[in-house]
Amino acid sequence: MKMNHHYEEISQSYLFSTVAKKAADFQKKYPDREMIKLSIGDVTLPLAGAVIKALHGAVDEMGKAETFRGYGPEQGYAFLQEAIAKYYAGHGVQLDPNEIFVSDGAKSDLGNILDLFDQDNVVLVPDPVYPVYVDTNVMAGRKVLYAPANEENGFLPMPDDSVKADIIYLCSPNNPTGAVYTREQLAQWVAYARKNDAILLFDAAYECFVTDPALPRSIFEIEGAKECAIEFCSFSKIAGFTGTRCGYTVVPMAIEREGMSPNKMWLRRQTTKFNGVPYIVQRGAAAVFTEDGMAEIQHNLDYYRANAKVIAGALDECGVWYCGGKNSPYIWMKCPGGMDSWTFFDWLLETTGVVGTPGVGFGSCGEGFFRLTAFGNAEKTKIAAERVKNAILSLNK
Ligand code: PLP
Question: What is the pTM of this model?
């Protein structure tokens, strides 16, 4: 027998384990100093009351013979597909519910979608990037090219006609950089994909953070995208479902490549390899789109947005370059004094007790940058932002 040796090629991600170890060492060395984590990528606020009520209701249904549910449709219950379609219609995107596939989260779908594509395709990912895009392709033995993101392009790489790619990952609002593509920029990616017969895999996991109506929340707001894009989205960030698990993928009927329909292929793939998301969880997810659910969820999102504003404000006061922080829970800052990402991490932790994430951990173009997140407690975020500001200002004295 032969093993998949591509697993030996996956770069070992020491990022979060190293961050955790350094944070633990700090607490051991200074038991009396308060450490604050601005490194959390997970949400911290509990599920909305409307979601909890719907979950309880569904649990009760499962306990009665008349309302008990066994296997459901693999692609999701119609009530949830229709609720998602209505949500998209709210920002001007018309979808057929059969284009929406409910799953246990965006991460699974981002990996599983690769079943649809031949191994010989060339993959293009931005650098820095959410590591799942790279690792899933390396595991499958695919060649990965990088589109460099940097201060000059505002961490929003644009298509380069001299690069031929077949599968292109875009994430907007971006993790880790917080940068958000404009409609005009996404239109250029759609034009590139159509010209090159490529498919865009658009990760919209953070779309709920977009408040500026001029910015797109979905790739399908761009004309022609339904012929060249697949969109991944999640209840994780909009509604705190990181532990509850629910997401969805939009595969338009209109895409076709080599006479094959990715929509039909994904349905076939999901019905073969996946048995659906629990009915209880889907009822909870549908409650997100009710009037009460949306109101509570906006309240939670505003809490995180206020944190982002506090961090961004502190960086403004000390003149540090950053992107994100608006329309995004992530703030991507340039390390002051020409420090590299890990030097700044160590210096910031030692000086202030604040933990962030070194940008280089997301790709070589992240070197010299640092990610701060807005998912923490509001009071602690204020204290941390003040400490970061004062420490950076002291550098210039
Ligand atoms: N996509 C991006 C860009 C993310 O940052 C994350 C999680 O942090 C995910 C997808 C995963 O989403 P889910 O919880 O739905 O698997």
Answer: 0.97
- Quick one: which atom of ligand 1 is closest to the CA of 108? 16
Ligand 1 centroid to 41 CA: how many Å?
9
DSSP secondary structure string, 127-146?
A: ES--HHHHHHHHHTT-EEEE
pLDDT, tens only, 256-265: 999 999 999 9
203 CB under 6 A from ligand 1?
A: yes
**Could you read off the pLDDT of 205-222 as tens digits, one per residue?**
999 999 999 999 999 999
For the CA of 241, the closest atom of ligand 1 is 14
- First-to-last alpha carbon distance for the chain, in angstroms, is 64
Helix, strand, coil distribution of the chain in percent, nearest 5: 45, 15, 40
**160 CB neighbour count, 10 Å cutoff:** 13
Rounded to whole angstroms, how far apart are CA atoms 269 and 290?
A: 31
CA of 108 to the centre of ligand 1 (A): 9
Q: From the CA of 130, how far away is ligand 1's center (Å)? A: 8
